[in-house]
Amino acid sequence: xxxxxxxxxxxxxxxxxxxxxxxxxxxxxxxxxxxxxxxxxxxxxxxxxxxxxxxxxxxxxxxxxxxxxxxxxxxxxxxxxxxxxxxxxxxxxxxxxxxxxxxxxxxxxxxxxxxxxxxxxxxxxxxxxxxxxxxxxxxxxxxxxxxxxxxxxxxxxxxxxxxxxxxxxxxxxxxxxxxxxxxxxxxxxxxxxxxxxxxxxxxxxxxxxxxxxxxxxxxxxxxxxxxxxxxxxxxxxxxxxxxxxxxxxxxxxxxxxxxxxxxxxxxxxxxxxxxxxxxxxxxxxxxxxxxxxxxxxxxxxx
Length: 302
Hints:
mainly alpha
């Protein structure tokens, strides 16, 4: 029996930095990730199915940035982030919280996914305030408002689908299969009839635009400035700036104009794919959430 070759020190350091940012743990084995190996059912998503494939792909690094940019265009969703999130003081903490929800729903058992959904729901019960809507009128909001939760789901689904199409591989069953698969997450968040096809997803997104529900203001500009240059240094900072440009490149002109961003003149796709290959090599040098899920499935004989 041969042992695996040792992981080069620079790769190990890169992996530790990436996993600290994504999972809140330099090994990637935060307690919630280890718990994925437990549980007594297969979970909500099929092994190697559309959600498993997209959320395990390196395009998620672009999708996270894209989702935050897109979500910021809804003044109600942005008000919740502005009033209740510590994204400026602790951007890594907010990122790892979102990653925890995505990873748990995608790879965890149903009981673990339900518990994580309930945890997010308890926090949302406290989130409320007021915002200026796209028509200029003031409205009250809570994080449980169906239209806001729906918008976040649509923005997330669109971001991960478009980023995987641009920088990932194929999707089992194609784009429609991913939209239909991740609609399960929408139903868990009590969204009535979430979109189940790529065309329906695009129609809903364009509907928000056509109704004037999305807008750009000084808060949006502030979020864009922060996301363009977050407090990452060294190689991480350089790589992040490329990933930001990669996220911008996936937006259609109408959304780029509304966000006030422009496509870079640099060869973004080529550079992004190089960075993602290096990242994939680093992350592939140790266990990941899907490996924990497979341990559970094999234990259950599934």
